[in-house]
Amino acid sequence: MGLLVGVTALWAFSFSLIGVYLAGQVDSYFAVLMRIGLAVLVFLPFLRPSLLRGRQRLALMGLGAVQLGVMYIFFYQSFLLLSVPEVLLFTIFTPIYIALLDDALFGRFTPFYLVTASLAVLGAAVIRYQGLDSGFWTGFLVVQGANLCFALGQVGYRRLSAGLPASLPRHSVFGWFYLGALAVAVPAFALLGNAAGLPTTGVQWGVLLWLGLVASGLGYFLWNLGATRVDAGALAIMNNALIPAGLLVNLVIWNRDADLVRLGLGGAIIVGSLVLNEWWLKRRRLAAA
């Protein structure tokens, strides 16, 4: 749990750094490529290919491609359509996606998740009850794409790690995760990126260095390592602990003029949907016991 708390504090600043210094100023595909490329450089010196079999290496690369590569593409695009607080609030669906993915893996279906998801969509509408347009809803869906990729990566890594020896030094194989993400970022920038959108200021380069070396390079390794050491309930809670931490940073430092009443009401509905979901899950576990 300590690892997850530490990474939450680390990531709390990432949303605002992206929204304030990169979104709309630096090509999003280049930002993704830069972050992942720097993360690869952090772990490449530790990589020991002989520690994993070929299928395990491919599985870890696939998880990196989804959890980091595809997720970042969705994530950076969302900042072009939504404000930082909106992006943060809309990440609250991730625990529900984790539960749905677990259902899918075990051949179950839980209709109640659709109820809580509908309540969360209502909360999203309250936040922007004026000026709702196609751009807003597109941004909302883009964030959900990022959430789904992040949830799939976490669930998949937990499953994969459970089958690996406990004595295996995780830092000596985690480079495959970033190489998988790089396999997505390179063609994405080559096909969709804009070379004219490279950073133009020292601050922008500094933000990218911080995000790549620390937030991505160190952060995702520690987060996934922490995810294997807690139960699914604790992991779900920590997925949403990032929201108040990120909002606090953004509202106090960069976004003092936000409509706090509307943001608070919509956020309360979204949080309420999650609380209802957790209450129902606990009730179901008690009934099963």
Features:
single chain, 289 residues, mainly alpha, 12 helices, 76% helix, 0% strand, EamA_dom, Carboxylate/amino acid/amine transporter
Kindly report how far apart the N and C termini lie.
26 Å
Radius of gyration: 19 Å
Largest sheet: none
Average pLDDT number: 85
Give the strand tally.
0
Strand content: under 5%
Taken from the alpha-carbon principal axes, the silhouette is globular
Order of helices and strands: HHHHHHHHHHHH
Helix content class: over 70%
Number of helices: 12
> What class would the helix/strand composition place it in?
mainly alpha
How many discrete domains? 1
> Which runs of at least 5 residues are low in confidence (pLDDT < 50)?
none
